[in-house]
Amino acid sequence: MEVIPLHPLFAAEIVGADLTRPPDENLIGAVEDAMARYAVAVIRDADISDAEHIRFSRAFGPLELPHRPRNLAPGAARRRMAPELFDASNLDDDGEIIPYQSERRKLAKGAERFHTDSSFHALPTKWSLLLGHVTPPPSVGGDTRFIDARAVYDALPEAMKERIAPLSAVHDFWKGRQIAGLKKVTEEDRKALPFPPVEHPLVRVMPYGRKALYIGGHASHVVGMPEDEGHRLIEELYDFATQERFIYRHHWRPHDLVIWDNRCTLHAATPLETDAYKRDVRRTTINEYGPEISAVDALAA
């Protein structure tokens, strides 16, 4: 296998990985090493099934499972994909395009602000692995942008590093959606995804020792500060982190598998403002440890 850098700071393509076979020690070690160095890894031409996607993901940690609404009877919903996968597509269960201006698609607009997956969960998130089964031409939108939050931390002024070292941020799914522009949040919304706010340190130390700024679209304010003041600090850090020098932009091709480390990167979708193209992208998210469970079910465990 060969690892080819894609950006001066981070992100790389892994060439020569065969994901149709059960992952062996060599593949697992190569991917772990690439992720520790680059934080985002791209494997092209990963024309694999849902089962192979799940098998590969489980080699690196237990799955975080999608939440199944409690009022949905078993077998009631037709699924285009395995139930272990998160759906990041613009398609309904029958494979038809969901109109861009529909209420269902509006909720997904929160993903257009830089964020890290599952930061609003208490589960110990690790990586996300997103596979593009069908992707539109890059010229019409649908790219994904990534930020190396380790490089962001390294570039912070020393005074800011000292200021944020002891601080934690509140990560709140629904406040994050409101900050992203989804103003109307109903009680039905909150009941469907009943995530309570969680707290995470603003500075996260990776297992290999590098520090990363842990913020993103779900971070609303700072613990122990007046909410407005804490929100201003988060936005100041967000503005610093989203400078172009820290961003890698991924132009999707069919069968790209993109892996990113949620502990030290941010990512943002770019909108596909058309109903002319299908985009079928499916994601696993893995945790560092623990049972395979949804975040909502974990609240009741």
Write the layout of secondary structure elements.
Elements: E1 2-5, E2 12-15, H1 25-38, E3 40-43, H2 50-58, E4 63-65, E5 86-87, H3 103-107, E6 125-134, E7 144-148, H4 149-155, H5 158-164, E8 168-171, H6 173-179, H7 187-192, E9 198-201, E10 203-205, E11 211-213, E12 219-222, H8 227-241, E13 247-250, E14 257-261, E15 265-269, E16 280-287, E17 293-294, H9 295-300
Parallel strand pairs: 2-3, 4-17
Antiparallel strand pairs: 1-2, 3-14, 4-16, 5-16, 6-14, 6-16, 7-13, 7-15, 8-9, 8-12, 10-11
Task: Write a concise keyword list for the protein shown above.
Double-stranded beta-helix; alpha+beta; three-stranded antiparallel sheet; single chain; 301 residues
